[in-house]
Predict the 3D structure of the following.
Amino acid sequence: MIVKILTLILLTGFITAEHVLYHNTVRGIHVLHQQLFFIPLILASFWYGLRVGVTITTAISLLYVIPVVLHNKEASSQLVVMTQICIYFSVAILIGWLSDRKRREQSRLFQKERSTALRKASSALIFIIQDIILHIENIYAGGDEGENSSKRGDIETEISRLKRLLETLTQFNKPQGGVTLANNLNDLILDRIPVYHQSAASKGVKVETDLKQGGCPSMITTESVLMIIDSVVDNAIDFSKRGQSIILRLKRKGDFCLFEVEDFGPGVSKENETKLFTVFFTTKSDGYGLSLSSGRKVLRDLGGDLLYNSKENAGSIFTVKIPRESPEQKVQEYDTSETEGEVLQERA
């Protein structure tokens, strides 16, 4: 980084000095300086992209044009200068755009490779965890009621944690999408409200609701989306202090249902905002760093998203963005299910 910056500064400084000192000597020298200025602007655009390339080109244009304007007032000369500056910017914009495009493509490929590697790792972990859970449950089921009774609660807790981890890892391992079900998101959330009240009450937190009148019919896979909603609500409860409230809000916006979970806790620090949806990143001592990243993947596979917004004073707002039900989708999936049913009947 430092070497590149020094290279740009030295090149620009050397060419500018030559341009100022020898501008009025031989015309060929002037033309040479015009072409030499391409070197730093091309390097800047290639190394740092469009924004930096245009900034460097602006500085180079000023360094190039000032000596010419001061020593030559002819209109034809000024026209040549303006044409040359336009060429500078055209080259910088083109190379900068191509450089940015290449970086985005590389980033996309890198993310794809990471996702593939994670799916492979999750496949192995799922098998191991399933085996562990099976053995623990067999041991637990085979024990006497009075035997190690003080430890049975701990075993149940650990089994529950392993099952949650297994469910989260499974989201990475299977593609979402395909045939979804038309469900009213309002009804799904209302069914979960008693569970949220119970969880929040144990920590002295209140749950307030602001649900959309008339609900919000959505095209979702119920199991996956409820797991995400539960995870976001649980996070809000965990990071709230005793006496605080969380607000569950549902609204319609365009082609989406938006389920917002607002809390008044400490919020997410600026340095952690960019890491929030990164796999294995967590600020919880007993967390796995998978719920938010897997939740975003699931929702994006379904055409939605999982978003975070910080509040001015304190607290966070997580938004579960889910596609609304459309008549076209409903009819198409109904036809698909009817066709599949007929095929199954014929085979039977």
Residues 176-180, 327-348 have pLDDT under 50 and may be disordered. The longest strand covers residues 245-253. The beta strands are 181-184, 206-210, 217-220, 245-253, 256-263, 305-310, 316-323.
